[in-house]
Amino acid sequence: MDPTLKIKTISKLKAMLPELSPRLRTVAKYIVDHPSDFGLDPIRKTARKCDVSTYTLVRMAERIGFASYDELREPFRHALVSSTALTERPAWIESLREKGELGQVQADATMNTLAIVERSLERQTPEQMARVAEMLLGAENVYLTAVRASYALAYYFHYVGRMALPSLQLIPRHMNSAIDELNYASDRDVMIAISFTPYSRETIEACKFALKKGVKLIMISDSDVISSEFTAHETMVASVISTHDFGCFSGAMALIENLLAMLMKLGGDDARARIKSYEDLRRDNNAYWIAPKKH
User: Fold this and answer.
1) Which stretches in the chain have pLDDT values below 50?
2) Judging by beta carbons within 10 Å of its beta carbon (0-12, 13-18, 19+), is residue 58 exposed, middle or buried?
3) E runs forming strands in the chain
4) Are residues 187 and 262 in the same domain?
């Protein structure tokens, strides 16, 4: 089998996205975002994850030029067999399943968390990490935006990241919109946008506006196929597959931690000096609770 067939198929799916029907677009996006799951799961499980019929999956295979669904899936299965080592489940996780129904829920959620952290991190190349870090360090202003659940990730990124990157600004501020904050942005600036399926309208509109202003856009998302209306300069993809009704952000947080480590390293002595100044400030102002000494 052609070892590049999986890559060629993904590239073809990305190119076809704008012209596909909504259901076929959902399937194509799922294959692009979750190639390992697509190669591993049977057709009915994939249909359930995509919320489409098995017939739609067969139509997708035919639309892209394969004789059958199995033929479409085969290069993804081949890639799993040839390049992926199976990791044994730790005994302590398996022991949870003996603790009743909630133990099984905990075991499934634990395995899911470990899996998406691994999948998210293995997708990040040192070359892209370095490009993104250099973009951020070289920008006049770095805007960071997210809403709803993604805001928690952005808040943490800003809280820690500003010590290595003093130009980092969390937007919107003071009840404004992100677009208000970008009014004076220029091609000397960079914006990081964090959004996961279902994508926030406010964040997508801010991305489109930033690009019109010439701002370089970095997306942290669950897909590099987000909108046919714009393309980010860099997209860092994290898996958010979950065992419950909402996305699991463990993989996204791991990705952000890697990027912070890169920024701290490249920030050098200046970053370390800023970190020390913050710690000195907090200590001098009793920011941290200290247990009273026992007499």
Assistant:
1) 82-86
2) middle
3) 142-145, 168-171, 190-194, 216-221, 234-237
4) yes
